């Protein structure tokens, strides 16, 4: 994963010496540094160098692409920070922007809306350090006095979306996606929010044909941009989303010498028939490989990649290790996936879709052909959908609490993430789609794959996200089934078996065996770990849940692995930061 670190000093002798010391250690680790001005310099972290582009007063750092048809006309010059809003409308990718004084000190940080490149600011003793992460060699040199904020950890393990906002430790300040952060201090300025994009679509509706075209164009733009510079690898799972990305790669004539596909050991997880049909239709050289089989081990838990945030993208370690090896062997430093499409394209299509229509039309929704179509699709009665829509849940739909975690007192409930503050006026299906955009940011986190290559998710890029947010959920489902508009948009490129497919591969049994076989490692990891010691993990409940019998009857695999990742993050950062003085 391409990352970056910017170091700036305030011009004083001691801060200049400190900057030089950091630079010397970076160079000693084989890293190349680049001056950004008299007082600032940049170093790339990851499998490839980050790009830099000068746009007006802003230096953009990361992966930067021009929009084919930038919607800058929607930004009024009367808005505060209109220039920066237009900049975020014109460029997409995974980048941050920096503005500088004439002496080279940073005055503001700007983060692009996708969240693909993390960003935090650390200021101390005349130094300003801005990075997608802070490497161990830097922490060993500077010895920061940060500490784990266990109240934030507790809230985030219940609702992982909170791990994507403020960092779970004191010290560095996170810059949120679509936000401008003044330096050296000042309140953040939000320049992009999902609900703003959604409302712009409500003000400018389009018919189904134009909606399908806009979706297809957005995906092609994202795929073509991320596939440069070629060559790249790509995954094909047999599902609709990865098939859409594969078809777009072929359409845009990207150079893809390696198509990766893995199948599970059970019939429910064996996607080879669909991969073969896709390969024949698109003329792909795909040779599906069996997934690596194993169990969770102490070594895996201790070496799970942990960055500024818990390594929730690193939970499938066996699979990541396999594909990392294949990418390195092929000499490729980027891979495109189909992740994120299910939430954006709206899958599954539940009764919440009709609830959105009811919220918009009221009793007139009873005359919509979507009502009987969705009733058939969900195997429910028409009147149960109407009853659900009339009842209408309000506010944000928070995740169910894991039995592993001690409940938070209601008085300590954390505030809603900034991106979700404007969504209560929408129906439940649109709220779920916007929440999926937020959760999708976590897919950009560190993993074994990102240590080998840039893991790129075209369906989570700004062009695709904005195209989908602008469309009502009833249009994305065409009022009849999951991801219906996406199926229509790409029907001419994909085999009918994938376009009309009703099911998807199921890997629960595979992961269940991996976790059940690893209980000897997981039980002490969680029962005797730091989260249990701090009262975050309910030790008595965990004792009961972490048994083969409980796994058979209750499942809870995702909750267990999420808790294991948070525990690993806490241990990794306490080791990096050292004992409390």
TrEMBL record:
<protein>
    <recommendedName>
        <fullName>Asparagine synthetase domain-containing protein</fullName>
    </recommendedName>
</protein>
<dbReference type="GO" id="GO:0004066">
    <property type="term" value="F:asparagine synthase (glutamine-hydrolyzing) activity"/>
</dbReference>
<feature type="domain" description="Asparagine synthetase">
    <location>
        <begin position="457"/>
        <end position="550"/>
    </location>
</feature>
<feature type="domain" description="Asparagine synthetase">
    <location>
        <begin position="215"/>
        <end position="375"/>
    </location>
</feature>
<dbReference type="InterPro" id="IPR001962">
    <property type="entry name" value="Asn_synthase"/>
</dbReference>
<dbReference type="InterPro" id="IPR014729">
    <property type="entry name" value="Rossmann-like_a/b/a_fold"/>
</dbReference>
<dbReference type="Pfam" id="PF00733">
    <property type="entry name" value="Asn_synthase"/>
</dbReference>
<dbReference type="GO" id="GO:0006529">
    <property type="term" value="P:asparagine biosynthetic process"/>
</dbReference>
């Amino acid at each position: 994963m391409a990352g970056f670190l910017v170091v700036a000093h305030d011009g004083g002798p001691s801060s200049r010496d400190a900057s030089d010391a950091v630079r010397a250690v970076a160079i000693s680790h084989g890293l190349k540094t680049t001056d950004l001005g008299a007082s600032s310099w940049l170093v790339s972290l990851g499998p490839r160098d980050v790009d830099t582009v000068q746009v007006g007063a802003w230096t953009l750092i990361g992966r930067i692409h021009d929009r084919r048809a930038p919607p800058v006309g929607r930004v009024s010059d009367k808005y505060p920070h209109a220039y920066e809003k237009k900049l975020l409308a014109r460029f997409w990718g995974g980048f941050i922007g920096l503005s500088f004084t004439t002496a080279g000190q940073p005055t503001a940080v700007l983060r692009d809306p996708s969240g693909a490149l993390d960003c935090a600011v650390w200021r101390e003793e005349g130094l300003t350090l801005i990075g997608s992460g802070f490497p161990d060699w830097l922490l060993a040199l500077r010895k920061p006095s940060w500490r784990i904020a266990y109240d934030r950890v507790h809230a985030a393990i219940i609702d992982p979306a909170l791990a994507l906002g403020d960092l779970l430790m004191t010290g560095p300040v996170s810059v949120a996606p679509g936000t401008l952060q003044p330096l050296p201090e000042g309140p953040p300025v939000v320049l992009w929010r999902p609900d703003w994009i959604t409302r712009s679509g409500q003000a400018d509706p389009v018919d189904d044909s134009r909606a399908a075209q806009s979706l297809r164009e957005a995906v092609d733009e994202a795929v073509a941009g991320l596939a440069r510079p070629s060559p790249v690898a790509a995954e094909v799972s047999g599902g609709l989303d990865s098939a859409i990305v594969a078809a777009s790669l072929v359409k845009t004539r990207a150079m893809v010498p390696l198509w990766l596909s893995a199948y599970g050991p059970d019939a429910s997880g064996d996607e080879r028939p669909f991969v073969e049909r896709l390969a024949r239709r698109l003329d792909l050289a795909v040779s599906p490989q069996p997934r690596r089989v194993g169990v969770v081990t102490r070594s895996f838990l201790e070496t799970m990649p942990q960055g500024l945030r818990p390594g929730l993208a690193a939970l499938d370690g066996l699979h990541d290790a396999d594909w990392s090896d294949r990418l390195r062997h092929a000499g490729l430093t980027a891979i495109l996936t189909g992740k994120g499409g299910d939430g954006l394209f709206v899958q599954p299509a539940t009764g919440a879709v009709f609830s959105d229509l009811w919220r918009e039309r009221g009793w007139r929704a009873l005359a919509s052909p979507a009502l009987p179509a969705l009733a058939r699709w969900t195997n429910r009665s028409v009147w149960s959908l109407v009853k659900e829509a009339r009842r209408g849940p309000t506010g944000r739909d928070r995740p169910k609490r894991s039995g592993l975690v001690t409940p938070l007192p209601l008085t300590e409930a954390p505030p809603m993430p900034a991106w979700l503050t404007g969504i209560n006026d929408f129906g439940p299906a649109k709220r779920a789609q916007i929440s999926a955009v937020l959760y999708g940011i976590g897919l950009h986190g560190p993993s074994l794959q990102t240590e080998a290559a840039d893991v790129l998710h075209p369906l989570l890029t700004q062009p695709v996200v904005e195209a989908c947010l602008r469309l009502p959920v009833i249009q994305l489902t065409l009022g009849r089934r999951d991801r219906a508009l996406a199926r229509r948009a790409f029907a001419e490129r994909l085999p009918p078996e994938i376009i009309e497919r009703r099911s998807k591969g199921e890997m629960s049994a595979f992961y269940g065996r991996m976790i059940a076989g690893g209980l000897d490692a997981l039980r002490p990891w969680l029962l005797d770990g730091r989260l249990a010691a701090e009262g975050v993990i309910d030790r008595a409940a965990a004792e009961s849940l972490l048994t083969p019998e409980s796994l058979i009857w209750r499942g809870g695999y995702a909750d267990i692995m999420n808790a294991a990742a948070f525990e690993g993050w806490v241990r990794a950062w306490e080791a990096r930061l050292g004992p409390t003085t």
